[in-house]
Amino acid sequence: MNKVVLIGNLTHDPEMVVTNSGIPVCHFSLAITRRYTNSEGVRETDFIPIVVWRNQAESCHKYLRKGSKAAVYGSLQIRNYETKTGEKRLVAEVVAEEVEFVGSKISGEDDAVELKQDVDDKIVTLEPVDDGDLPF
Q1: What HEC string does 27-58 produce?
Q2: Are 90 and 80 in contact (CB under 8 A)?
Q3: Which of 22, 57, 65, 102 could form a disulfide with 26 if both were Cys (CB 3.0 to 4.6 A apart)?
Q4: Which residues contact 105 (CB under 8 A, 6 or more apart)?
Q5: Sign of CA dihedral 112, 116, 9, 65
Q6: C-alpha torsion sign, points 74, 79, 83, 87
Q7: Which whole number is the average pLDDT over 55-71?
Q8: pTM to 2 decimal places
């Protein structure tokens, strides 16, 4: 069984390309901090490459940004290729079957003020109800 579940923050904006056959594919990396500390007392971070295909790729490209938190469900893929100079390379990446947008990142203080104003505008003051006229 080959299943991977990851939750982390994007290290860069997603990059999307379309294959020669017209299929969208999106690439990004997740930064995931390890649960334990090393011998120096520091929690290390892993940077995991993610590949997303088709409609999910388009959604990731449209809605995710550097710093966004995402949950990825997929499988580990190991592939190799040869560079233009003839060097052999090995790549480990997660092929996403499903990506959930866990949260959004507010890019600046102005955005936070706008968001708070939107919430404040939607708060409605309710009038008290005279329940003496209710039949029950």
Answers
A1: EEEEEEEEEEECCCCCEEEEEEEEEEEHHHHH
A2: yes
A3: 57
A4: 9, 65, 66, 67, 68, 69
A5: negative
A6: positive
A7: 96
A8: 0.73
